[in-house]
Amino acid sequence: MAKGKSKALRVVRRSRALIASPRHWRARLVFWIGAIAIGAFSAAFAKAADLAQGVFLDITGGGGWHSYIPLVLTPGAFVAFAVATHFQFQGAQGSGIPQVIAARHLHEDENRGNYLTLKVVIGKVIMTILALGAGASIGREGPTVQIGAAFMLKAAKLGRLVHARGLILAGSAAGIAAAFNTPLAGIVFAIEEMSRSYHVRTNGIVLTTVILSGIASIALVGNYTYFGVSHAVAEFPGDWPLVIVCGVVGGVFGAAFSAGVLTITKRIRRWQSVTSLTRVILVALVAGLIVAGIGVLSGGMTFGTGYSQARSAIEGTPLPPEFFLTKFIATISSTLSGIPGGLFAPSLAVGAGLGSTIGLVFGAPAGLAAVLGMAGYFAGVVQAPMTAFVIIVEMTGNNALLVPVMATAVIGYGVSRIISPDPLYHGLSHYFIADAIRKQRKEAAEARAAEAQTAETKPAEG
To answer: What is the pTM of this model?
Structure first.
């Protein structure tokens, strides 16, 4: 009895300390402000990215010689952004998700900060917006993950909060949730893709961050469904061959994208192992020319995020059969160029195009086939099936397709794992971890050399 009373008293004292302590309130306020800032910043970032893409379409959509402007604008912008990223904003290239995964695995705060500093975030935001204004086949969702993680790491330092790894995870979840207005997908993404594990304590931090950032985002842009509302229905058993084929084919192409990016990135990094401005420029130039050439030949369909094409397919308008392949090439070229930019939106567009093409073969409704194609391909690229089916169901507002989308995502994931066992984001994160460790060792060696030189000069001066 006394033992139970003592335990109850300890709980009461701990509760009073948590409520009354100024230190705890300061930490909470900094944490809450950081979470709200993620939602507000994500909303502003989304608006700026959409405006930039609109400006590009206005410049190049007038017909005649205007349609050939990307042949100069796109490669030139790729070169400028790749050089700026390589020499001024190291850690800002690509999606941003591999950098956040790397930061969670690095134990030294200085190493984490290399990828999650305000300088990197500012560079990433500006160059992603400008790259969309130049026609790059990228998205803003991956960069939003890096932004969210950087904000929460900064909040951890200002509020003297512990569990920095958990806060980085929370910022990542809030970034995805705010970017797509998909709170459940943000939470699932954090658990399945970013941490690959489940921790009860961290889960509370993730939930709180997602809720607060979501409130801020909704207050600015309102509540919406990213791709509108899909009314497609998959009948059993008539439409299930389409489910299986979308899963298998989506997994094959998703694995091809993932394996292609990992393999070519490895070769490019070896080729650029000696810092060479010429090689950085050459890679960006070739990638920019490919993106521009495909965009011009496709009538501009492959430029940008691919949002309008994907939404059109989901709403029932079939995409041209070649769209998914041209968008696939434009996206892999943009990813390998060295410029900042994410994969989520372009991958969903490729998946919608793939599903639309498969639907034409099956004679299936375009809207249904597009949603299933998105699930199979996206799960194949990121190898995170739960994230894939949750995010697609939330973005289309169609709970009736939950089981078919889930099945397609699991099939796509399984096929992709067989072909390409290394998950894309985690495979890319190894390069950033290695870079941070290499930099740390180099700085330590330089410090030791400086100390040795100082020790040698002291006797001589004496």
So the answer is: 0.88
Amino acid at position 212, single letter: L
351, two tokens: 């998946």
Report d(CA 42, CA 177) in Å as an integer: 10
Decide if 425 contacts 101 (C-beta within 8 A). Answer: yes
Count how many Cα atoms sit within 13 Å of the Cα of residue 280 in the half-sphere of its side chain: 18
Higher pLDDT, 68 or 203: 68
Options 3.40.33.10, 1.20.58.220, 3.40.50.2000, 1.10.3080.10; CATH for 240-425 is 1.10.3080.10
Output the CA–CA distances (angstroms, integers) from residue 126 to 92, 122, 341, in the order listed. Answer: 11, 6, 11
Query: Is the peptide bond prior to 237 cis by the omega test (within 30 degrees of 0)?
Result: yes
Task: Give the number of other Cβ atoms within 10 Å of residue 220's Cβ.
Answer: 16
Q: Is 407 helix (H, G, I), strand (E, B) or coil?
A: helix
Stretch(es) of the chain classified as CATH 1.10.3080.10 = 22-221, 240-425
Structural contact between residues 134 and 74, judged by C-beta atoms closer than 8 angstroms? yes
The dihedral built from the CA positions of residue 343, 270, 127 and 443, taken in this order, carries a sign that is: positive
Structure token digits, residue 175: 């970034």
Please spell the DSSP secondary structure of 24-44, one letter per residue. HHHHHHHHHHHHHHHHHHHHH
Question: pLDDT tens across 380-408, in order?
Answer: 999 999 999 999 998 998 888 999 999 99
Question: Regarding the domain with residue range 22-221, which homologous superfamily does it belong to in the CATH classification?
Answer: Clc chloride channel (1.10.3080.10)
Task: List CB contacts of 224: < 8 A, sequence separation 6 or more.
Answer: 181
